[in-house]
Write a structure and sequence with these properties.
mainly alpha
Length: 366
């Protein structure tokens, strides 16, 4: 039996459709629509992150703190033979003890300054009266601006008074819930960090993907933990140096300002600026001479300059050096989004992105 090859007829052949090339306008519109979709998606994402701040902020703080204490937990598990739940519980208790010690050291000197607030305000008013010429020149400038703008109405500021007790009663349960969520997230993150890593690695299909993902986990933990532990030691040294220097200069409650310098130095750029304003207020409340008024802030800025320019680059090293522009952008964005907690997670977020990019984007060696 002979079989012949089937030859489709011309009527059965599918017609050949020739795609016309897109014009420049069509390509521009297509690219613009894709960019617009990405922008809208990012806007919706960040709006959702902002709305979920009450939940996401303490969880993010717990993850960052867990990454910082992960090497400590690893040492406990290897050398002390502690199980995962015991090392996680030990880290949480250690953190609570540290917070209690810092709060106790803050409580007494801070209460003394709060009791002195009326006297401090009187002293500041006397300084304002002494510097009246400066304010008179500003008032004259305001009159000129009003005349140029063509209005004779005085500039007024309306302040609405609210019940402090009502605000505290409303905010206190939210803060307590966030603290509990932070502690619970910290415990479970440290106790299950190995399971989280293995679960994510199991989702990778190829060996290459698993290897890259493992390197990302390693670099993120190494960068964040090394940075935060190093910065904590540097900030502690800064706080001690500031406290001793202010004590030698005769500034009241010097170690209170040293502890405050230690805490605020975690927020790059913004923390030292806030500390400088506080020390100017301390100088105004303590002395009357202009040279002595700026003595506390001058001492602090000198020590901070040495720390920022010499100590931190030497301890952290060039491998951990970040672009100041991106640091400023990250700080501005996360503080605007989440407030003080955002300022704490801003730098670890940049370090995480850096660790991901160095493993995903090919590195070309010169």
């Amino acid at each position: 039996m002979r079989f012949e090859r089937f030859q489709p007829s011309a009527a059965l052949k599918p017609p050949i459709v020739r795609l016309q090339a897109k014009t420049g306008i069509e390509l521009g519109l297509s690219t613009g629509s894709q960019i617009a979709t990405i922008i809208v998606g990012l806007a919706v994402f960040f709006a959702a992150v902002d709305l979920a701040q009450v939940i996401l902020a303490p969880v993010a703080l717990a993850v960052v703190t867990g990454l910082m204490f992960s090497p400590v937990a690893t040492v406990m598990e290897r050398r002390l033979r502690l199980p995962l739940w015991a090392s996680a519980l030990a880290i949480v208790l250690l953190l609570l003890v540290m917070i209690a010690i810092v709060s106790a050291l803050f409580a007494f000197p801070l209460s003394l300054w709060l009791d002195r607030l009326p006297d401090i305000w009187v002293q500041i008013q006397s300084h304002i009266r002494d510097w009246r010429q400066t304010f008179d020149s500003l008032a004259g400038l305001q009159e000129q601006l009003r005349s140029v703008m063509g209005t004779d109405e005085a500039m007024t500021v309306n302040i609405e008074e609210g019940s402090a007790v009502t605000e505290i009663a409303f905010v206190a349960p939210i803060i307590a819930a966030q603290v509990l969520l932070f502690l619970a997230s910290l415990y479970f993150f440290i106790a299950t960090r190995h399971q989280i890593r293995h679960s994510i690695l199991a989702l990778c299909i190829t060996r290459r993907a698993r290897l890259k993902t493992a390197h990302v986990f390693r670099d993120v933990e190494w960068f964040v933990s090394r940075y935060l532990l190093s910065i904590s030691l540097i900030n502690a040294g800064l706080g001690v140096a500031v406290g001793l220097a202010l004590w030698a200069a005769g500034v009241p409650s010097p170690f209170l300002w040293g502890m405050l310098a230690f805490l605020l130095n975690y927020i790059i750029y913004i923390g030292p600026a806030i500390m400088s304003v506080i020390l100017i207020g301390v100088g105004l409340a303590t002395w009357n001479e202009l040279s002595l008024v700026f003595l506390p802030v001058t001492i602090y800025l000198a020590i901070n300059f040495i720390e920022a320019q010499f100590v931190t680059p030497h301890v952290i090293g060039r491998a951990m050096t970040l672009n100041p522009f991106f640091v400023l952008l990250s700080l501005t964005f996360w503080i605007w989004l989440w407030g003080p907690s955002g300022g704490f997670v801003a730098i670890p977020f940049i370090l995480t992105v850096h660790a991901v990019m160095r493993n995903v984007v090919p590195q070309h060696k010169a």
